Amino acid sequence: MLEALKKEVFDANIELVNKGLVIYTWGNVSGIDRESGLFVIKPSGVDYDTMKPDDMVVVDLEGNVVEGHYKPSSDTPTHIVLYKEYPEIGGVVHTHSDWATTFAQAGIDIPAFGTTHADYFYGDIPCARELTEAEVHGEYEKETGNVIVETLKQRNIKPLDIPAILVKNHGPFAWGKSPANAVYNAVVLDKVAQLAYNTMTLKPNTERVNSYLLDKHYMRKHGPNAYYGQGSK
Amino acid sequence: MLEALKKEVFDANIELVNKGLVIYTWGNVSGIDRESGLFVIKPSGVDYDTMKPDDMVVVDLEGNVVEGHYKPSSDTPTHIVLYKEYPEIGGVVHTHSDWATTFAQAGIDIPAFGTTHADYFYGDIPCARELTEAEVHGEYEKETGNVIVETLKQRNIKPLDIPAILVKNHGPFAWGKSPANAVYNAVVLDKVAQLAYNTMTLKPNTERVNSYLLDKHYMRKHGPNAYYGQGSK
Amino acid sequence: MLEALKKEVFDANIELVNKGLVIYTWGNVSGIDRESGLFVIKPSGVDYDTMKPDDMVVVDLEGNVVEGHYKPSSDTPTHIVLYKEYPEIGGVVHTHSDWATTFAQAGIDIPAFGTTHADYFYGDIPCARELTEAEVHGEYEKETGNVIVETLKQRNIKPLDIPAILVKNHGPFAWGKSPANAVYNAVVLDKVAQLAYNTMTLKPNTERVNSYLLDKHYMRKHGPNAYYGQGSK
Amino acid sequence: MLEALKKEVFDANIELVNKGLVIYTWGNVSGIDRESGLFVIKPSGVDYDTMKPDDMVVVDLEGNVVEGHYKPSSDTPTHIVLYKEYPEIGGVVHTHSDWATTFAQAGIDIPAFGTTHADYFYGDIPCARELTEAEVHGEYEKETGNVIVETLKQRNIKPLDIPAILVKNHGPFAWGKSPANAVYNAVVLDKVAQLAYNTMTLKPNTERVNSYLLDKHYMRKHGPNAYYGQGSK
Predict the structure, then answer these.
(1) Which pLDDT belongs to residue B233?
(2) DSSP-assigned letter for residue B4
(3) Which chain C residues are Cβ-neighbours of D198 within 8 angstroms?
(4) E strands along A118-190, which residues?
(5) CA-to-CA distance for C137 and A52, rounded, in angstroms?
(6) Which DSSP letter does residue C208 get?
(7) D216 touching C, CB under 8 A?
(8) Which residues of A are catalytic?
(9) B169 with B130: CB under 8 angstroms?
(10) What is the pLDDT of residues D59-98, one digit of tens each?
C-alpha cells in the first residue's frame, strides 16, 4: 500500500544523507496521504546504507502501525502532532544538522539577517522552550510536538510561512508541502543557520534585515504576486 | 542565436555549483555579446541538474526577452544596469556564497588583509548601503544595480580593479571580462572573505596589508609590467 | 590466526579515514579476542593506502608481539591498559580528529549541551589531566592509559557510559564493544565536540542540558527499557 | 633531463590540489637535484587540469632557465634562496592554504598547543616580519626568501626541525627532504594551524604544550632513538 509515497519518503530520507544533514541513522522523514489519513515514516535505527523503500512503515494518526516489518521512528508521535494540527503540511523532517543544532543547543532563535533567510522563512526561526521534567517523563515525543505547536501559536506563525523550528537542547524539525519539500526546507534551514552563526561571530550585535526587505524577498517567492521561478510554484 | 555564448553562460552556471558557491537554484550568471548588445542569462528557478545550454535566455539591454522558452532570472535588471554602465565587463554573477554573504549580512567591507586578496582585488571589497524602502518597493532589482554603481563611483573604483561587491543584507555580485572570468572572481571573492573572517575572529583589530604590498601584488598580476603567468593574460 | 578479527580491525582503521577522522597514518584502532587474551592492532606508521588486513599485528596483554611482520602502533601500551582495566570493552581507537583535539588542546571537558551528546555520552566527556614530567619520561604510552583510568575512576564513570576521553594537549581515545563500535563512538565524539565548539563560540556561558533530558535520551537508547532502534541493540 | 625529478615535482604539485591546499594556480612546488645543482619547479600560472610532467621548468641556482617551454613560477627566487642556504632540504612548497594564511594575515606565530603539532614541528611555527617598502620594491621574491632565512637564524631554528614558516600578510612556505615530503609538511602545517585557530577561538589565552611533552613527541618521531613507524624513516 502507498507504494508511491513510500518511494517518496525513502528518497527524501536518502537525500538527507546526500546533503550532509545526517550521519548514521540520525534523522527521519515522513510523508502523509491526506485522503487515507495514513503516513509513511522511516523505521527506527535502520542503517541508511541497506534501507529500501519497502522498509518504510505505514502508520495512522493514532500511532498504530498499519503496515511494515520494522518499528517506526521513535519520533513518530512528534510527526503525528504536527500532521494533526496542520492540514496544510505533507511532510515532516527531523535532523541533528550541524548549524541548526548549534542554535538549538544555545537556546536562541535564528535571526533573519538577510535575503537568503527571507527567501524561505518569513521572520526569525524560533527556538521552542525547554520541556518540563513532567513533559520529558511523560509522553516525551508527543510533548515535543506539543511544544512546537505552542510556540507557533504564541508567535502567530503559520507553519508554511516559517517551515522549521528548533527544539531547545535537541535539534531542528522542518516541514513542507511534501517529503521532498520538507527536506529542501531542512537544507535551507541549516544553511541559513550557518550564515547567521558566521554573521554573529564576525560582528556581534548585527541588526536584523529590515522588515521591508524581508517582506519583499519572501513575497517575491511566496506571495500572491510571486515572480521568482517559472510560475509553476 | 548566440549558441557559443549560451554554452559559455551555461558552463559558467554549472561551475558555480561545482565550486560549491550555490545550492539548488541560488545563483545566476550572464554573459554579453557587445556587438549585438544582447546578453544571455540563466532562466529563473530552473534546477541545475536538468538545465541545458538551450534553456539559457537571450535578453536585450531594455530587458526584453529576445529568445528563450523560460523567464530570465529575476535578477536580470541588476545585470542590465551593470552592462550598461561598464562596457569593459563581459560577464556578471550573483550568488549567496557562504563567506561573502556573511560579510553582506554583517554589513561590512571585506578588508584587504593579504596578498591572496591583493592578487585579485585592488583594495577593500565594498559593502553597498542598504536600499531604502522606496527603492525596495519600486524597481527593486534595478535599484540593486544602481546602488552598486553608486558605491563604485563614490569610492572611485574601476570595476575591473575590484570585480565584486556586497549588497547589504543580501549577498555578493561579481563580474569579469567573460562569464568564466566572472565566476572565477566570485570563487576568489568567497575564498578571500573566508580568510578575512578567520583573520578577524582569530585576531580582532588586525591591520590591513600595507599599501606597497597591495600595489606590488595587484600590479605583478594586472599592471602594465605584469610578470605572473605566461604573458597571455 | 584471528583472521576474522584482523579483518574487523583493518576495516575499522579504514573507516577512520573514510569518516575524515585521520589523515596519513594519524590514528589506530585495535580489537581484542577475550577468549585468547590477544588483541589485534594497526602497525605503526604504515600508509593506509597500501595497508592490508594481513598487516595487522597480534599482541598479548603483556605487549609481546605474537604474530605480525610489522611493529605494532606506538600507542599499543595505552590500549593494553584499557583492555586490562575494562573487560567490557572490545575495541579501542586513538585519533587526532579536529574537534576533539581542539578541546584536548584547550584542556577542557566537552560539556553535554544537548540530545545529540546525550544519545551516546551520559554526561560531559572528560579531559584528563596533563601528564607529569616523570610520567612522560617514563613509560609514556602506558602512563597515558593510566591517566585515562585515573580520570574515569575519579569521576565515577563506567567506560561504556561515556565511551571516550580527551588526553590534555594530545587528543581523544574512544572505545566500544567492538572495533567498529569504537570507531562509531569516535565519529560521534568528534561531531559532538564540533557542536559544542559552535555552541560555546556562538553563546559563551551556555548552560548544559538539564539532567532529566540527559537521562531521558541516554536511557531511551541504552537503558533497560530502551525503545530506540529495532531491539537488537 | 631530470625526468624522474620532473615527475616527482609534478606529482607533488597535483597532491597540493588533491589535499585541498590550493585552488586554481595558487601554489608551487619545486625539487632539487643536489648533484647537478639544478632544480625543477612548476611553471607560472599554468592550469593544474592540463599541466603535464613535461611542463615543469628546470632552473639553476642563479635563476637561469636551463630547460622548459614555460616561464618558471614567479616565486622561483624565493625557492633559490632556500636551496642555497639550506643544503639539507630537497623540496620547497608555497601555498595560500586556508589556516596557515589566516595566521600569516593576522601576523602571529602558530603556537605549539599539542602533540599533533609536536609530532612534526619542534616549537612554534614563526611568522616572519613584514617586508619593508624597499624590499618589496626591490627584488621582492628574493627578499621574501631572505626574510625567511633571517627569521630562522634569529630564532635559532634548524630548517628540518620546523619545516615551515609564515610570511606576514602573504602565506606559508614549507620544505622537506623531497618535494613529496615538503607537501606532506605543508598539509600538516595547515591542519596544525586549523587546530590552533580552533583552540584560540574556543579558549583565548590557552597555554602552550609544556616543553617535556613537546620534546617527547618530536623525539619519538625524529630523534636518534625514534620509535614511531617501521624504522625506515
Answers:
(1) 39
(2) H
(3) 98-99, 102, 105, 197
(4) 127-128, 164-167, 171-176
(5) 55
(6) P
(7) yes
(8) 119, 228
(9) yes
(10) 999 999 999 999 999 999 999 999 999 999 999 999 999 9
Question: Rounded to whole angstroms, how far apart are CA atoms B55 and B47?
Answer: 11
Please tell me whether residue A54 adopts helix, strand or coil conformation.
helix
Q: Return d(Cα C99, Cα C166) in angstroms, integer.
A: 11
Which residues of D are marked as active site? Answer: 119, 228
Question: Which residue, among A12, A49, A8, has the nearest Cα to A28 in the 3D structure?
Answer: A12
Judged by DSSP in three states, B15 sits in helix
Q: Which residue in B195, B202, B230 is closest to D201 by CB distance?
A: B202
Catalytic residues of B: 119, 228
Q: How many whole angstroms separate alpha carbon A69 and alpha carbon A52? A: 12
Taking the CA of residue A46 and the nearest CA in chain C, the distance in Å comes to: 7
How large is the C-alpha radius of gyration of chain A? 17
Chain B nearest-CA distance from A171, in A, is: 22
Q: Which residues of B touch D74 (CB under 8 A)?
A: 220, 227-228
To the nearest 10°, the Cα dihedral for D16, D22, D25, D27?
-70
Q: Which amino acid is at C73?
A: S
Phi, psi torsion values for A28, nearest 5 degrees: -160, 145
Contacts of B96 in chain A (CB under 8 A): 115-116
Question: Distances from the Cα of C105 to the Cαs of C113, C144, C171, D205, in angstroms?
Answer: 20, 15, 7, 12
B169 at interface of D, judged by CB pairs closer than 8 A: no
Q: Does B49 touch chain A (CB under 8 A)?
A: no
Residue B115 to residue D171, Cβ atoms within 8 A: yes
Exposed, middle or buried, A142 (CB in 10 Å: 0-12/13-18/19+)? middle
Cβ partners under 8 Å of residue B46, min gap 6: A230, B25, B55, B70
Cell match 563506567: residue? C158
Query: Distance between alpha carbon D13 and the CA centroid of its chain, in Å?
Result: 12
Active-site residue C49, yes or no?
A: no
Q: Which of D153, D185, D138, D188 is nearest to D29 (CA)?
A: D185
CA B13 to chain centre: 12
The three cell numbers locating residue B68: 528563450
What lies within 8 Å, CB to CB, of C59 at 6+ separation is C38, C39, C40, C41, C65, C66, C68, C72, C76, C80
The pLDDT value recorded for residue B56 is 98
- pLDDT value, residue D233: 39
Q: For B127, how many CA atoms within 13 A lie in the half-sphere containing its CB?
A: 18
**Distance of CA D60 to CAs B53, C63, D32, D41, Å?**
48, 52, 9, 11
Which residue from B166, B222, B18, B184 is spatially nearest to B91, judged by alpha carbons?
Answer: B184
Let me know if C149 is exposed, middle or buried by CB neighbors in 10 A (0-12, 13-18, 19+).
Answer: middle
Beta bridge partners of A81: none
Among B44, B71, B101, select the one facing A116 at the smallest CB separation: B101
Q: Is C54 a catalytic residue?
A: no
**In whole angstroms, what separates CA B162 from the centre of its chain?**
10
Check whether D152 has a pLDDT greater than 50.
Answer: yes
User: Helices marked H in D42-125 — which ranges?
Assistant: 76-85, 98-106, 115-118
Averaged pLDDT, B193-203: 98
| B197 to A198: CB separation less than 8 angstroms, yes or no | yes
Query: ipTM, 2 decimals?
Result: 0.96
Structural domains in chain B? 3-222 (3.40.225.10)
Cell, residue B71: 523567464
Q: Is the distance from CB of D71 to CB of B231 less than 8 angstroms?
A: yes
Backbone angles phi, psi at A207, to 5 degrees: -85, 155
- Among B71, B72, B92, smallest CA distance to B149 is for B92
What is the distance between the alpha carbons of residues D154 and C168, in angstroms, rounded to a whole number?
Answer: 31
- With CA atoms as reference, the chain D residue closest to C198 would be D202
Here the cell at position A46 is: 535502520
Q: Where are the beta strands (DSSP E) in D13-90?
A: 27-33, 38-41, 57-60, 65-67
D96 touches chain B (CB under 8 A): yes
Which residue stretches of chain C have pLDDT < 50?
233
